[in-house]
Amino acid sequence: MTNVVLQTIGWIGSALLVVSLLQSRMLTLRFLNLIAAVVLVGYNAALLVWPMVAMNVAVAIIDIGHLIAIGRRRRRATAADEVSPIASRTSLTSRGRP
């Protein structure tokens, strides 16, 4: 791999990392941060900078864990918002009656 290509990959990974930290939505932040970490793992592995490889692998694992947790919370919230027709009809007809 040429030096220019390698440096370009490093700059792209760094830019993605910065852009990820500017996000206000946690899902977007974690997703972009995961992509940046994976790109930077490749970049630092090509340069044989093993401490940075280890750190970015750890960041990627943390991001994956957070993305899974966000997905679970969203599924739970969606399931809680769904109301069965029977429960809905029962609660409407029993209001105001003893």
Can you give a write-up of this model?
It is a single chain. By secondary structure, the protein is an all-alpha fold. The termini are far apart. Helices cover 83% and strands 0% of the residues. The chain contains four helices and no strands. The protein has one domain. It has helices spanning 3-21, 26-46, 50-81, 85-93. The longest helix has 32 residues, at 50-81.
State the main characteristics.
98 residues, mainly alpha, 4 helices, elongated
Topology:
Blueprint: H1 3-21, H2 26-46, H3 50-81, H4 85-93
Helix pairs in contact: 1-2, 2-3
How many domains, as an integer?
Answer: 1
Number of strands: 0
Question: Structural class, judged by helices and strands?
Answer: mainly alpha
List the secondary-structure elements in sequence, H or E.
HHHH
| General form | elongated
Fraction of residues in helix: over 70%
Gyration radius, in Å:
23 Å
Strand content of the residues, in percent?
A: under 5%
Put simply, the count of helices is 4
Please outline the major beta sheet: none
**Which stretches are poorly predicted, pLDDT < 50 over at least 5 residues?**
none
Q: Termini separation (Å)?
A: 79 Å
Mean pLDDT: 89
Write a brief structural summary.
The protein is an all-alpha fold.
